[in-house]
Write a structure and sequence with these properties.
Elements: H1 3-9, H2 13-25, E1 28-31, H3 37-52, E2 57-58, E3 77-81, H4 89-104, E4 116-117, E5 120-125, E6 130-135, E7 144-151, H5 158-161, E8 165-167, E9 176-178, E10 184-189, E11 196-201, E12 205-213
Antiparallel strand pairs: 1-10, 2-3, 3-5, 4-12, 5-12, 6-11, 7-10, 7-12, 8-9, 8-11
Helix pairs in contact: 1-4, 3-4
The chain binds N-(4-oxo-1,4-dihydrocinnoline-3-carbonyl)glycine and fe (ii) ion.
């Protein structure tokens, strides 16, 4: 995570200023077309391959309507990677580009005092009506400051496929409805300022999440 990476990316400070302003004003920032179409497709292919190899494990098991354990429907499925494995090269590239913008915002606002991050969590909602109930990512000051999610879902339409992310910014009577669109990057403060939920998804829904620590 170096400033050299930022300059190599040729990131104009205007992008970093844009991110900082949105994070300060709304606590949420959406960047569309974050990578090139080709890079996005490579990441999607890597994730599908990993998923089809059965490398994802149950993120949360939810009780089916029957209530009994036999009725458990599969919830979201997840896999952790630091992007250095041979079959995660494009995911590794995504992580370093996420690092470049989050670290690039260092010093632009007191809230961006970032000292590290988690590995990347690859998540798949298998499209059987799986949802993620309203929650706060970091309700207990566990150090996570920023949630950074990259979506990979081509031609997604929440009217048909569900899977909308709805954020309820604390103290505001507005909500943010975010479609999990291909090549879209989302950042938001991980703490109580941003309770959020994922509506039931009726098509396979992929995302890559990294949490940044202060
Ligand atoms: O995919 C989204 O749009 C938002 N996603 C979330 O808020 C979210 N938050 N916390 C998690 C913890 C473990 C496994 C999956 C998750 C998860 O999808
Ligand atoms: Fe979350």
């Amino acid at each position: 995570i170096s400033t050299v990476a930022v300059s190599q990316l040729g990131l104009k400070t205007s992008l970093l200023d844009y991110i900082t302003k949105w994070m300060q004003t709304y606590g949420i920032c959406v960047l569309d077309r974050f990578l090139s179409e080709d890079e996005g497709l490579k990441i999607l292919e890597e994730i599908k391959t990993l998923y089809n190899k059965g490398k994802f494990k149950a993120g949360q098991l939810v009780k089916g309507r029957g209530g009994g354990s036999s009725k458990e429907i599969r919830g979201d499925l997840i896999m952790w990677t630091d992007g250095t494995e041979p079959d995660c090269v494009s995911i590794g590239n995504l992580i370093s580009k996420m690092d470049s913008i989050v670290m690039g915002c260092q010093g632009k606002s007191s809230e961006f005092t970032i000292s590290g991050r988690t590995k990347a969590m690859l998540a798949c909602y298998p499209g059987n009506g799986t949802q993620y109930v309203k929650h706060v990512d970091n309700p207990s000051c566990d150090g996570r400051r920023i949630t950074c999610i990259y979506y990979l879902n081509k031609n997604w339409d929440s009217q048909i496929n569900g899977g909308l992310l709805r954020i309820y910014p604390e103290g505001q009577d507005i909500v943010a409805n975010i479609e999990p669109l291909f090549n879209r990057l989302l950042l938001f403060w991980s703490d109580r300022r941003n309770p959020h939920e994922v509506f039931p998804a009726y098509a396979t829904r992929y995302a890559v999440t990294v949490w940044y620590f202060d």
